[in-house]
Amino acid sequence: MKRRLLLAAMGSTALFGPHASAAEAWPTRPVRLIVGFTPGGIVDETARLIATHLAAHMKITMVVENKPGVASLLAAEHVADSARDGHTLLLGSSSMLIARHQLNRSTADISRFSAISPLSNAALILVASPKFPASDPQAFVREIRANPGKYFYSTAGVGSIHHLSMEILKKQLKLDIEHVPYRGATAMLPDLVSGQVPLAVMSAGGAEEQEKAGRLKVLGLMNPTKWSNESSWRPMAEVAPGFGVSSTLQLLGPAGMPNEVVQRLNNALKTILGMPEIADHMARQGAQPKYSSSADLQADLQLDNQRWLALVKELNLQER
Question: Between β-strands 88-93 and 247-254, what pairing exists: parallel, antiparallel or unpaired?
Fold first, then answer.
C-alpha cells in the first residue's frame, strides 16, 4: 500500500511574474519523492531524512511516496514517465541499475533520467564465519587458492549487488568459489554465525556489533577505499588493485528537467550532505553521505550502467 509522508517547510508563498524562469517559479506544488522500496527499511529512512532536510532548507513542501515492486523498477518507470518540471523525483539506487538489465526493462534505462546528485554510499563487506581460518584480505586469498572448490559464499540473492561484487572480485583474482544464494540476509545470518555458511557478502549496517560479539569476522571492504579513520576494516583492493564496488543512492528526475532546477537541488544537497547529523544518521546504517556535481553523477551512472550490463550478460542473469 502506498504510504505518504507530508513534509511541509515553513515559509511564505512567493509570487512570480509571467516572465519568471523555470527555476524561479519552481515549485508550484508539492514535490514528490518516489521510493521503490517498502516503508520502514534503510532506503526509506534515507529518503525521509533527505526529504525532511531538503524541505526545510529550500522552504518547499515534499511528499515521500513508496512505490515498491519489480525490484524498484515500477517507481523508476513512474518517474521517467512523469512531467519534466521537477515536481516528481526518484530515489535511485545501484540495485535499480542492475535490475533494469536483469529484467530487460528499457523503460527504466538510465538515459530516461536527469542526474541531480548522489546521496549516500553504503559499505559492502566480505565476512566469514568465526570458524573460517582467515581474518584479512591476504589470508582469505591464500586460503581460497590453497583449497580450490572447497568453500562457497552466500549473499541475499542472485543478481544482488552483493552477488555481483563478489563475482567481479572472483574474476579479477581467479578464485574457485561458488555462490549459494539465500532469500534475504535475515535467513543467511544464522547459518553464517553457526559455520554452515563459511563466507558471505553483505551490507555493513550492524556488522560492527556482530563482529565485536564474535558472531562473524569482517575480512575486508568491497568498497574501493578505507571506510573511515575509526574502522579497522581493510579494502579488498589491497589484494585486487583497482577493485571496488559501491552501493549508492542518488536523487534523479525525469530526463529533460530544467537545468536551473537540477542545480538548485544539487546546491541544496551539497549543504545538507555536509551536515554532521546527516553523517551520524547514515553511519548508524553503515553508510556515508556522498555528494558530487550533476555532471559527475551522470558520468558515474553511465560507467556503472555499462559494468552491470556486461556482468549480467556474462553471468547469464537476463530474463528471456
Answer: antiparallel
Report how many domains make up the chain. 2
Q: In sequence order, what E strands does the chain have? A: 4-8, 31-35, 61-66, 88-93, 113-122, 124-128, 152-154, 178-179, 199-203, 217-221, 247-254, 287-289
Same domain? For 281 and 208 the reply is no
Instruction: Locate 172 and state its grid cell.
Output: 579479477
Q: What is the mean pLDDT of the chain?
A: 90
pLDDT digits (tens, 9 = 90+) for 111-157: 999 999 999 999 899 999 999 999 999 999 999 999 999 999 999 88
Amino acid at 31: V
Q: What pLDDT sits at residue 23?
A: 60
The pLDDT, as a whole number, for residue 230 is 57
d(CA 91, CA 286): 18
According to the model, what pLDDT value does residue 65 have?
Answer: 98
Same domain (yes/no): 32, 100: yes
CATH code of the domain containing 181: 3.40.190.10
pLDDT (average), residues 52-63: 98
pTM: 0.85
Q: Regarding beta strands 124-128 and 199-203, do their DSSP bridges make them parallel or antiparallel, or are they unpaired? A: antiparallel
Tell me the residue range of the domain where 35 lies: 4-122+247-314
For residues 13 and 116, state if they share a domain: yes
Say yes or no to pLDDT of 10 above 50: no
State the pairing for strand pair 113-122/124-128. unpaired
Residues 256/262/263/268 CA torsion (nearest 10 deg): 180
| Domain-embedded: residue 46 | yes
